[in-house]
Design goal:
The protein contains 8 helices and 5 strands. The protein is of the alpha/beta class.
Length: 212
Amino acid sequence: MPKRTGLFIAFEGGEGCGKSTQARLLYNELQRHDVPALLTHEPGGTPLGDRIRKILKVKLDFNIGPKTELLLFAACRAQLIKDVILPALDKGTHVMCDRFSGSTLAYQGYGRGLDLDLIESINNAATGGLQPDMIFLLDIKPETGLRRKHNTDSDRFETEDIAFHRRVREGYLELSRRDPGRWTMLDADRPAETLAKTVFDLVYPILNKAVP
């Protein structure tokens, strides 16, 4: 893959962990320092992705099989990379993404029980080998995270049983253990402002002094 000039940062974690908040706070802080930055999310972020998101996230009157779910997420990701992420990175814009391929391994792999090698293969096909430079895992007990949510009755993933969410958390912890150079685990029980400062302090040195 050609050398990129922008930094690619993903935020991962289970339901209610606060990753969306931290992605937004980092984006806002970079904007405040006049650093070129872009905030996006998965699934979605493109017209196609937003349509597929509605199918993936909202409870329907029919079931979506685990492999179908996996492929739909991959389709969203491929489109997001092509239309949004790569163009931004290539022109030196730093990208904050609320979820990326780690979510697929945690949710469809550890959560749904799909073969991890199959998921890795599909992830690689969808991303063309693109990986985040940094991944922040907002770790939280599933029981705590789910209590923070307000739309549980309508969300396909939030309505899964607690055993599913525990498997997802264990998956995330395993992913972070396997690649400590890329993954940084944060205690999502800490105040949002404290976490945001920690994130910024870790990102700052890698921006090549882009932040004055």
